[in-house]
Amino acid sequence: MSSEQQSWIKRGWRYTTGRCTHAMQVMRDRGPSQLQFWFMALMIGICAGFAALGFRLGIGALQRAIYGADDLTMASTAFHLPWYWVLTVPIIGGFVVGQILHRFTPDGRCRTVSDVIEGAALDGGRVETKAGLASAAASLITLGSGGSSGREGPVVHLAAVISTMVAERIKASPMTGRDLLGCAVAGAVAASFNAPIAGALFAHEVVLRHFAIHAFAPIAIAAVAGTVINRLEFGNVAEFSLPHGNDLGFYVELPAFMLLGLLCALVAAALMKAVFSADDLGRYVLARTGWPRWLLPTIAGGFLGLIAIPFPEIIGVGYETTSAALTGRIGFGEAIIIAMVKAVAVAITLGGRMGGGIFSPSLVMGALTGLAFGIMATGFLPELSGSENLYALAGMGAVAAAVLGAPISTALIVFEMTGDWQTGIAVMTAVSLSSALASRLVHRSFFLTQLENRDVHVAEGPQVWLPQKMRISTVMRPVTEDEGPSSDLVRNLAIKGNALDEGMRLDQALAEFERIGAAFLPVIRPSEEPVDDSEAAPDPEIIGIVYHVDALRALNQALAEAAAEEHS
């Protein structure tokens, strides 16, 4: 190569890198253009798809290495393994999970979909990256070693970690960060279920909690990209194969599906309350005994191993059991027993902080509940009934929709996972009634109840959670007598205790204004030095004042921005 050619290549390389650097700087300053954002959505969808695919293949590889089977043959294979092997593996897995979460998360808790919802609402579309990666590793080990949970929750958070890295890199605004987060979630869900439509709607319905028009196209692009990644590996096939003849026997059968929906709501609520009760019990035991927190997943693994010896159906994601229920290869009594044992196993896994998600267990519970109900219904009026498999399909959607609080995307996930679009009337009937009743029994969904238990009130709407994330420092003014009240008046208010602490949130400040009825309040810095009882308390350090009208104006502006984003 001549020196002239080398010089031309160097100039071209410098020009290209310079333009890329300039484009990146412009994107950071002004935000991405529509074309840039769509390209980013495509890339994030591909990355999320590979993350979901890698997570799924990783679970399968670990299961084959430990049990000699993947999730579609796990229960039947584990039934023939030595009892000590079935008992020991979850204990070892729980110990490893405990060590990972203890070292790499501040609270020893796996991150999942609820944290993604919180990140979308409160943190500008960002989630914890270090804790998220640790949670993905912990969930992979949990599911590979016999934990009874699902893979979709960890995959959704792992995809959110990817979008967070991109958002931080380009210094994305909160709205852009949420849109990138929606793209990542859509790509991950679509790749997990081979369900592009459901993936896009899940991101809107569950995570972003609105259907903004401006975000629909990029989220759809990401969902399609994630689906393509899945199909490159597994082909265009449904997750579950159903037998033929699932049509409704007659429309008079619809009341039975209405009853099934109400029953599934009760089952979903019982499953969720069991998980929350197990989590409360685990924290109570640790608090009373003083045991290290990494020991809790180990203990949970021991209980899981004991249950798995007589009931290997509880091991892993549970797709083999779900497929058996959808094809009618489980009897009435067996379906009820396995469903009850599965609920206990899921509560132990998630309450014991071993990791994993709730969606796949809800599919198992729903299919078993629907099958048991269908066997009774078709046996009662066989001449007017279709197949009991249709009840299993409707039950699967109904329980999952109630747990996720997502009737639209869940119904579509069921259709796309089974490839059966002819049973829509029955499934939608059960899903709608189940979602309506379950939302009255819990805080609208499993994820939102998790957030409520952490004092994060996303379920109540932006008028509640927006002032919870805003600090009074954003509306605080300096104390200047030229433009405000006298320093003596401000100091007297502070001495009387009519003041705001500098770390207060806006909702707390508004509550104080309502209680005191003042037009303004001083902001004080609490003293860090202990005060002797014999000495007079020193005057509080006043660092500023907050006007009631400024606090209301800030809240109104935040609500207007949220509404503008939702309807854009």
Automatic annotation (TrEMBL):
Pfam families: Voltage_CLC. Its main location: membrane. Coiled coil: none annotated. It is a multi-pass membrane protein. GO terms for molecular function: chloride channel activity. GO terms for cellular component: chloride channel complex. This is Voltage-gated chloride channel. It comes from Paracoccus tegillarcae.
